[in-house]
Amino acid sequence: MQKPVELIIFDWDGTLFDSVGQIVDSLLFAAQQFEQPLTPEAAKSIIGLGLPEVAQVLFPTVPELHTDLLKCYGDHYVAHSKDDAWFAGIAEMLYGLKNQGARLAVATGKSRRGLDRVLAQTNSHDLFEITRAASETKSKPDPLMLREILQFTGLRPEQAIMVGDTSYDLEMAQNIAMPRVGVAYGVHTKNILQQFNPLTIADDVASLDQFLNLQVNASDVA
After folding, report:
1. Are 157 and 176 in contact (CB under 8 A)?
2. Where are the domains positioned within the chain?
3. Number of CB atoms found within 10 A of residue 98's CB
4. Could you say which of 41, 67, 178, 197 has the lowest number of CB atoms within 10 Å?
């Protein structure tokens, strides 16, 4: 017997928003300005973490530069970001799930300021019942932001699904036994995501949409 999912929690960058390339470019720009070594692969690998954790991982030898590096990164990202960078089909998927009665939330490594800016850009504040940003809680893969979302919604982990493109997303959900879905069009590969026992790994938005619709409309009848 399968019960319908009541709450779907989405990561933002690389899952809903096609921003991975810009994040990498902005991190590389900041590193260059402060003469710090950084490869595109390393910059991409930390997407999903909170900004303080990003600085600690990428620039561990220069803690005195972290504040300036992150400001440089943020300024460059805002100056070069697109107004609307949903992956194709994401908006239709979200509105479709919402219209079917699914409750939607966001759990992201972005700062609250950054998340509010992109929510405004996409005019999507009203789509989500609650959003949590890493700057106001603990960074992934600590599950605190998921616990806070569950507390707000009054649901248990098994009544929700976490959807994300990184190991940080899926490990966070696994840490509280929340069902999870990986997407292979973002940051981490299928091989990495598979280590966290997701229900499925979607190759594209269309297959993600199809899978989530099945979960929302699952029958209570055996």
Report:
1. yes
2. 7-18+84-216, 20-80
3. 16
4. 41
Fold of 7-18+84-216: Rossmann fold (3.40.50)
> What pLDDT, in 10s, does the model give residues 131-159?
999 999 999 999 999 999 999 999 999 99
Collapse the DSSP code of 162 into the 3-class scheme (helix H, G, I; strand E, B; otherwise coil) and give the result.
strand
HSE-up (13 A, CA, CB side) for residue 198? 29
Q: Which of 126, 105, 108, 111 is nearest to 77 (CA)?
A: 111
Where are the strands (E) in the chain, listed by range?
A: 7-10, 103-108, 130-133, 160-164, 180-183, 200-202
- Integer Cα distance of 113 and 214 in angstroms: 34
Q: Is the dihedral of CA 172, 174, 176, 182 positive or negative?
A: positive
